[in-house]
C-alpha cells in the first residue's frame, strides 16, 4: 500500500505532497526533508528502492525533479516505480504546453490514479477524462 | 523502448517544473501562486520562508473572509492555502472556506473546493459533516462532472456515521450508464467497506455485478473490494476463482482496449492485482490451485518482454506460484525466472529477485543453493539495501548448521548500519536466532571471536551454564543441549576450533556429560584425548582437557584411556601437564579417591604428618613471601634456570580463574586488542579535554572537579560512534554477561571449579603475599593473582618479542652476591626471582661502580688478574664517568672480548675491550660493529700499548663507539665481528652480539607542566596500560613514580592527587610523555610519543622495574 507521494526539487523543496496515511501537519516537513535527503544522497547506479524506517521509498528522478513514493513492505516496488513513470507520462500528456503552477490540476490527476493508498486507475485516457471534462466546461 | 520514452521525458521537468524558469515566467506572471512559489524558491533561509508564508497567510485570510471575493478568486486563494499547508504552515482558517467553495463553486472551482477539503481535513474532522449536504446535492446533480466529483471525494473521505444518508444514491450509481460513474461508485463502496464494513454487507451481490461489468475499469475497481474480502475470508470466495482466472486470461491475452496498455503490456497493475487475489485463493487449496495453473503458466510465458513492468508482473507471478499448492512444472519455470532476476545487471531487478528469493526459500530452501554465488556476491554489494535484502533472505534459511555464519554477517551489517530501524530489526533477528539456536549462536561467538575475545566471555558463559536459571529442568536441558552440541562439534572437526572454545568445550563435557544418558564417559574421554593429539592444541588447553578427563575417568575403557594419556604426558616438558596426567592416572585407578570428592582446603588431613615432622625437628612452615625476604637477607644462590617453563603454567591459572577481574590489564596487554583500538580511534578532542582539564595553563584544575568527572574523561565509551555503539549493544545482546553475582555464589563457583584453580590458588598465596591484607580473601586473591599473571603474559605479547633466555642468562651470569631467590623450583618464586635477577642486572647498569670489582672477580676466568683492571683501560674522556659493569662478549683461545657502556647526556658510549690472551700478538685486527637499530659512530680507538691493528700478547685494545637509537626496541642489539691474524696463522674471525636495554638510552626530560601539556597534544603514538602500583601505605603514586624515576631515569614533572605526569627522552631528543593515574588499585598509565614503538618499549621497562621492586 502507498503511504505518500512526494514531488520535490533538487533543493529539497516540496512541490507536491499527498498522504494516504495520517501524518500530523507539523511532522510532515521534517519527514519530507529526511526522505528527500535519503534519496538525493544516492547515486545513479544504486537501487531505486530505499529502506526508510519501517517502510520503503521508491524514487525516480526526472532531471531536477524527484518523485518519491512511500510504500509499505508488502508492496511490489517495481510496479510502483513504473506507476511513477505512468503518472509522469499522464502529466506529460495533459500539460502539452509549457506550464505553470498548476498544483490543483496535478492533485486532481493524482486523485484519479491513487485513492486510499491503492492504484485505482492507470489508463491515461481515463485518468484525464474528468479533468478534461472540467476544462471543457470552464472553457465553454 | 522504455529508454526512448525516458529520453523524451527528460524534457518533462521544463513542463512540469514548478521551479521558476525564464520561459514560464511570462505565462505565470498573472498567477499569484506562481509568485508565491517563485518567492519561496528564491529564499535562502527557513526564517525568511516563515516570514513570507505568514504574510501570505494573513493576506489569504483577509481575502477569504471578504464578502466581495468571487468563487474564482476563492479557488485561487485555496490553492495558495493548500501550498502553504503543504510547506507545513497551518491554514485552518481556510477549511470552512474550502467547504464553502465545494458547495458554491462551479466546475473547476468546486473541484478545487473538494480537493482542498480532502487535503485539509482528516476523516474524523467535524467540519466534514458540513460537506454531507454538498455531496448529497452533487450526487443528485444532472451534471455528470459534479456527480463524479462528489463520488471522488466520498471515496477519499466521508464521515462514517453519515454513510446511510448517501448509500442509496451511491448504490443507484452502480447502474449508471456511464462507466466512469459506475467505477467511482464502486470505489466509494470500497471506501465504505473499509471504514464501516457492516454498512455495506447487504450489497455484496452488487459487488459481483460490478465484477462482471462489461467495462474493464469498473471490474478493476471491484477487485479492490474483492482483494480485501478475500484477505479476510478466502473460503467465502473460492467460487469466484474461475472468474478471476478468466479475467486474467483475457487481460494476458490482450483482450482489453489498447489504451489499457502500459508500454505495450496489457493493464499490468490489473494483472498484479489479479495475481494477488489468486494467490490468496489458491493457498493451501489443491483444487482451487489447479484451476489457476494454466493461466499462471500463460502469464509466465507472456511476460517475456524486457521491461521493468513485465518483471513486476513476473515477481507477482512467482510469488503466486510459490504460495499456492505447488506444481513442479510451474515451480521449475518460476525458479528459472528468479534466476533471471537475481542475475540481472539492473540493480532494481536484482533487488526484486532477492526479495522473490527470500519469499520462495521459505517454501523451498534448496532454491537458495542454486543462487549461492549470487547471494554471496550480494552480501558484499556496495548498496546497503541489497545487502540488507540478502540478510533478510539468509535469515529465512537459517538452520542449526549455518546460523553461525549468518549471525556473523548480521553482526557485520549492524556495525555499519546507521539507521535505527534497521538496527532494531536486525538486533531483533539476531536475538531471535540466538533464542532458537542458543548454542550455535554462542558457538559463533566463540568460533569467530576465537582467541581474540575477552577472556571473561567464555568465563561468564561457563558461569551462566553452571549457575543456571530459575528452573532445574531448564538448566538440565540447556546443559544437555550444550553437551550434545559440543560432542557433535568434536566429532566433526575439532582442529578448526579456537583454543578458548576448546577450553569451554572441555569444561562443559567434564562437568555435564554425565547428564546425557546415552553418552558413555569413555566416549567423551576418547573425544577429549583426541584433542590432546592435535598439533595446535596449546598446553593451556591440554590442561583444561586433562582436568575434564579427571572428572570422567571412571570405568573400564576410561581407565585404559587414562593410562595411555599418563604414559604420553608423564614425561611432558610442561610440569602442569605432567601433574595433571599424574592426577588423572591416580584418580582413574583409585575409585575410592575418585568418589570421595570435596576439597579440604585447610589441609587438615596433613595435621598429623606436620606435627610428627615438627616433633622430629623440621623447621616450621613459612609462607613463601616470608621465606623470600629471609632469603633476600641471606643472599642465597639462584636456581631459577630450572624453572623457566613455569610462567607458562601461570597463565593457565589466570584463565582458569573464573572471576576475571583482569579485564583491564588483560585487554591492554594484547596490543592488537579492540579496547586499545577504541582508545586510539577516539577523537583527539576528548583526550585533549582530559589533559586540559587536569593540566591546564593555570596548573592543576582538578580540585574544582569531582573525581567522577575526571574518571569519565578516561573512559572511551562516550566517544564511540553510533556504529561502535551498535556493535557494543549487539555484543551485549548476544552474550549474556552476568553482571552482579552475590559474593557467596561466586565463592561457590570458585569452589565448584576448584580443580581448575588448584594450582592457581597455591601460587596466588605467594604473589599476593605482603600486599593484600583485606578480609575478602578469596576474591582479592584472585584479583591479585590474575593481574600479576596477566602482567607476566603481557610481556611477550605486547612487545612481539620474548625476552630471550640469553638475555636472562647474561644477566644471571653477571650477577654478584646480592641475588634474591630461594633454592626451590616452585612456580611463583622462580618466576619472581627470574625477574628480580634481571632487575638487578638493570639496576647495576645505572649505578655500578662499587659492584665492579666483585663482578669481574666472579667472571668465568677469575684466575686472570688482568681482568681486574679492564676498567682502567677505559678511554680517558670516559674514565671520570660511571660505567656499567664490564660484560664478557665472547672469547676463544686467543681473544676475550668484553664490553661496557657509559651513559652520557646525549648518547651512549659503548666501549669494547679486546684482550689478547694468547702468547703472541694479534695482527691486522679489525673490529666491525653494526646494528640495524642503532646509529653507531666510531669514536676513537685507544690502544694502550700498540696501534690499532695489532694487540700484543696479554694486553688490551679498546674500541670506543658513540651510539644513539635509530628505532626503539626493548633491547637494542649490537652485532660485531672481530677479524685478526695470529703471526704465521690464517685470518680468523670471532663474532659477538651485545644487547643494550633501552633504558640505557633513556634520559630525563625536564619540562614544565605547561610545556608537557602542549607536547602531549602534538604526539601521535599512544599506548595505555595498567601497571602494578607499589602499595606503600601512605602514597603509592609517589612511591611508584620514584621507583620509575630511579630505575628508568624518568623525570617526574608533577604529581597532584591521584595523577602524575612524567617525561623522558630517548637519546637524542626523542621525547616520551607518560600520564599516570591511580585507578582501582592499579596505575593506569598512558604514554605518548612522536616515535613509534617507544611507548610500548618504555612500558615494558616500567613493568619490569615495578615487578622487580
TrEMBL record, chain A:
Please report the name of this protein according to its UniProt entry.
Answer: AP complex subunit sigma
Any one of the GO CC terms: cytoplasm
Source organism per UniProt: Sphaeramia orbicularis
AP complex mu/sigma subunit domain: residues covered: 1-137
The record's annotation in Pfam families points to: Clat_adaptor_s
Query: Membrane topology type, per the record?
Result: Peripheral membrane protein
Where does the protein end up?
Endomembrane system
InterPro entries in the cross-refs: AP_complex_ssu, AP_mu_sigma_su, Longin-like_dom_sf
Question: Tell me, how does this one assemble?
Answer: Adaptor protein complex 4 (AP-4) is a heterotetramer composed of two large adaptins (epsilon-type subunit AP4E1 and beta-type subunit AP4B1), a medium adaptin (mu-type subunit AP4M1) and a small adaptin (sigma-type AP4S1).
Which superkingdom, per the lineage?
Answer: Eukaryota
Annotated GO biological processes are: intracellular protein transport
| Record bears the keyword Membrane | yes
Q: Which family does it belong to?
A: Belongs to the adaptor complexes small subunit family.
State its role: Component of the adaptor protein complex 4 (AP-4). Adaptor protein complexes are vesicle coat components involved both in vesicle formation and cargo selection. They control the vesicular transport of proteins in different trafficking pathways. AP-4 forms a non clathrin-associated coat on vesicles departing the trans-Golgi network (TGN) and may be involved in the targeting of proteins from the trans-Golgi network (TGN) to the endosomal-lysosomal system.
Keyword check for Membrane: yes
Q: Which PANTHER family match?
A: ADAPTOR COMPLEXES SMALL SUBUNIT FAMILY
Any idea which UniProt keywords this protein has? Answer: Membrane, Protein transport, Transport
From TrEMBL, chain B:
Where is the sequence biased in composition, kind Low complexity?
664-675, 730-742, 806-821
Pfam families membership: Adaptin_N (PF01602), AP4E_app_platf (PF14807)
What SUPFAM superfamilies does its record include? ARM repeat
Q: Where in the cell is it found?
A: Endomembrane system
Question: For the AP-4 complex subunit epsilon-1 C-terminal domain, which residue ranges apply?
Answer: 1003-1107
Q: Could you mention a single GO BP entry for this protein?
A: vesicle-mediated transport
Look up the record and report any one GO term of the cellular component aspect: AP-4 adaptor complex
Q: Which domain of life is it from?
A: Eukaryota
> Polar residues compositional bias: what residue ranges?
720-729, 785-805, 822-840
Q: How does it sit in the membrane?
A: Peripheral membrane protein
Q: Tell me which UniProt keywords the record has, alphabetically.
A: Golgi apparatus, Membrane, Protein transport, Transport
Quaternary structure, per UniProt, is: Adaptor protein complex 4 (AP-4) is a heterotetramer composed of two large adaptins, a medium adaptin and a small adaptin.
UniProt record similarity statement: Belongs to the adaptor complexes large subunit family.
What does the function comment of this entry state?
Subunit of novel type of clathrin- or non-clathrin-associated protein coat involved in targeting proteins from the trans-Golgi network (TGN) to the endosomal-lysosomal system.
Descriptive protein name? AP-4 complex subunit epsilon
Q: Which organism is it from?
A: Sphaeramia orbicularis (orbiculate cardinalfish)
